[in-house]
Amino acid sequence: MTDTITIRRPDDWHVHLRDGAMLEAVAAFTARQFARAIVMPNLSPPVTSAASAADYRQRIMAALPDGSDFTPLMTCYLTDTADAGDIAAGHADGIFTAAKLYPANATTNSAHGVTDVAHIMPVLERMQDIGMPLLVHGEVTDGDIDIFDREAVFIERVLEKLIGALPDLKIVFEHITTEQAVQFVDSCGPNVAATITPHHLHINRNAMFAGGIRPHAYCLPVAKRERHRLALRKAATSGSAKYFLGTDSAPHEIHAKESACGCAGIFNAPYALESYATVFDEEGALDRLEMFASEHGPQFYGLPLNEASVTLERTGSAVPANIEVVGSTLVPFHAGSKLEWRII
Ligand code: NCD
Ligand code: ZN
């Protein structure tokens, strides 16, 4: 049995670092685990200009503990009125690594999202030309589509058409949750990839209703049936370069989660790598953790691999029930349980 594993330092290709006091509270957790992270732009108001992304990047750097070795990679929140020239200039200036498509009202702070992809076709054409990745929250928002079907329907209604129109656009299908998404990503060329979260590898939809309603297991896209979880585990551990680590760590204060209308989002940043390592170990694929966590992402984004390394050992991490941060309480993923692996 393998009891220690050393891999290149990983990156997180999808994280919500928030702003203000919450940013101050959570930035260190991500910076401890990851060398770089793709930072989601769904602040209120959203990050839609290169100037606001540059300011946000500075606030992130200021929130890091002294001595952190962490680079935030910024994204542009696309709206119906997004301007191709501005976005391309932000990319050329090294401010925007990618742009994020939130269908309007799909999730937290997405009210300003895109109402119809047709509105942003000039932007997407330009992104295709310059090789700038499009990151997609892949869910339709129609109230008449069952919430558990929204990702699969998005593939048929939006993604297939988008790829037909822009076959060379680099697309990351973010936080995939279904076997349909895996089949779709597998069927596309190397310009289409996907991130997979630790929670969608660990839980299926039963977790939201285990003995009562469990708000800390609720996120978007919502966890699906067991067969989908198994398809995600197979994809993540397959060694395919199309799949890489993206935590979608999305902290909300405890009172916003434990509420009559609780927010979507799972805060997994504190033990993310330990959580993934547990899955890869259970699947007999620890030798593929490094590809998923530290290689496929940079290869897709055209960035260098990290040179530093991190070692995990099989001594276990006890995940606390709560994490007290300045002024509030956060409940981490795996709260109150023990994970098999620990970062040394
Ligand atoms: C995210 C958030 O809270 O910002 N929530 C979530 O459940 N994942 C938004 C998102 O990525 O959908
Ligand atoms: Zn997210």
Can you tell me about this structure?
With 344 residues, the chain is an alpha/beta fold. It has a single domain, classed as Alpha-Beta Barrel (TIM Barrel), CATH 3.20.20.140. The chain is 34% helix and 17% strand. It is built from eleven helices and 15 strands. The strands form four sheets. An eight-stranded parallel sheet has the order 2-3-4-5-6-7-8-9. A three-stranded antiparallel sheet has the order 1-10-15, covered by helices on one side. The protein is globular, with a radius of gyration of 19 Å. Zinc ion (ZN) binds next to loops.
Number of helices: 11
Query: From the 3D coordinates, which CATH architecture would you assign?
Result: Alpha-Beta Barrel
**Total individual domains:** 1
- Based on secondary structure, the structural category is alpha/beta
Here the CATH topology equals TIM Barrel
> What integer value in Å does the Rg equal?
19 Å
Succession of helices and strands: EEHEHEHEHEHEHEHHEHHHEEEEEE
Oligomer: single chain
Bound molecules: N-carbamoyl-L-aspartate, zinc ion
What is the CATH superfamily label?
Answer: Metal-dependent hydrolases
N-to-C span? 18 Å
Overall, the morphology is globular
Low-confidence stretches: none
Helix content: 25-40%
Strand order of the largest sheet: 2-3-4-5-6-7-8-9
Number of strands: 15
Beta-strand content bin:
15-25%
| Major sheet attributes | 8 strands, parallel
CATH classification class: Alpha Beta
**Average pLDDT taken over every residue:** 97
